[in-house]
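S.,

As promised, the flavin-adenine dinucleotide run. Input:
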Amino acid sequence: MTIIHWFRRDLRLQDNTALSAAARDSGGAVIPTFILDDRLLRGADVAPGRVQFMLECLRELDAGLRQQGSRLIVLRGDPAMALTRLAQDTGAGAVYFNRDYTPAALRRDTHVAQALRQAGLRVQTFKDAVIFEQSELLTGGGTPYTVFTPYKRAWLTRLSAGGRADAQPLDAPALAPLPAAWMTLSLPELPDVAALGLRVTQQLPRGGESEALRRLAEFKAGGALRAYAEQRDFPAIEGTSRLSPYLRFGAISPRQCFAVAVSTLSGDFPAKHSFSPAASDKRKEGADAWISELIWREFYAQILFHFPHADTGNYRREYDRLEWGSSDSALDDERFAAWRAGRTGYPIVDAAMRQLNQTGWMHNRARMIVASFLTKDLLLDWRLGESYFMQHLVDGDPASNNGGWQWAAGTGTDAQPYFRIFNPRLQSERFDPDGAFIRRWLPELADVPLEYLHAPHTMPPHIQAQAGCRIGLDYPAPIVDHATQKEESIRRFSRIARQDG
Ligand SMILES: Cc1cc2nc3c(=O)[nH]c(=O)nc-3n(C[C@H](O)[C@H](O)[C@H](O)COP(=O)(O)OP(=O)(O)OC[C@H]3O[C@@H](n4cnc5c(N)ncnc54)[C@H](O)[C@@H]3O)c2cc1C
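Predicted complex:
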């Protein structure tokens, strides 16, 4: 029986669970299909850069399929209708796809599966985007984990206690050539981003499975994985994998990443490997820390699955009463615009926002700093920042983005206590000690001496003249006073804490 494989967030041939199952069950008679659904291309949170990246992944996928005499059938329109018609035209009897756990995708997939079954097709879905799904890791009481550390412990325990198969990457399957007559069912070629009416202004990483694998190999071979625990927090250093856009679109799988991390550990994994944070071996510390980040990704995916209200609202509902903004909405708009443009007068915040605007990616430490700044210094609703990130991040992922924003805002699961607020200047001094990140993204501060770089408004006038940077003209003075705003933020949060006794 011919089987349609519906590609979505799994844009790769290697280690693709549903694709391999479709090849196995059909003896290779698979119709690889992608649907350009308008929901991917329109709407408030669509990022043109992310669409471009996705199209590059699709182009490479198609090239890989053509090497086997197959090709990617690209359809446009509503997935339920497009897949039903494709099955009718080809005589396919089943549709296979990998599960997506975000609220909008779940709604779509329920509807599509129902329509396909009504049309007499068999529908089979697979775990692929994560190593352990939401229902596989529950507390003793059968409830979801809402705190990361016990979740991580349960994740690692399950892996060691027989879950190794869940983490094992699969080879790319052999697929039969598609009959020539079916080629006409596809759009003749993938459109480029401009043809879709979108304009990309960012310098983005190149999409595709081969680039993802190259980056993963380089992350290990170049030593960044080994040094990850020490280097990951410094945005000026290329100390992280930069694989997030590839994981977002499934150009690489979490199992492939995990396997590389494990390959740097002792050979007896997972039976005896302890993941001890006290380990002295640097190599092991790096891999352990990186594995933790991969687990954070799964943690947030299961949080959004179990608590879909967090998609648009505060995870902790008591914070629905939290006051955002000031009494002057024009001032709030102005502050939000300064944050977006990277003109707040806080160099670490501004450098990070310009990195995002210019490259579609931002370092994790910088994401935490700018998110804290928006919510605790500008006192603006985290949803504004979440949405801006979705419109600009090439790795924009509903679960990780929502989780990260609510963590920083103090309204989320594992949120840091509301009274612990990032001080942007101290963060800057600690994580960009020589100012390399700031100078890279803020050319107007290039000649400011290091002693003033983290707070340029403290430069005396003659130093401003020497550095060619006049505060208020070439670079703004801070748009808010951190100490004052911090106090106000704590006042707002503690009012709710008091009300709730
Ligand atoms: C406010 C905020 C918003 C964020 N929005 C997103 C988002 O939209 N998409 C996204 O993929 N990540 C998001 N993150 C998490 C994190 O910043 C990025 O995953 C990371 O910076 C990507 O860089 P990397 O690939 O070099 O990561 P590495 O450090 O190499 O980590 C490897 C992988 O682990 C995952 N990961 C790492 N850190 C986290 C984390 N804190 N939470 C969840 N997964 C993580 C990512 O898939 C990442 O590619 C956000 C964090 C914050 C604080």
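The beta strands are 3-7, 30-36, 73-76, 94-98, 122-126. DSSP finds 21 helices and five strands in the chain.

- D.
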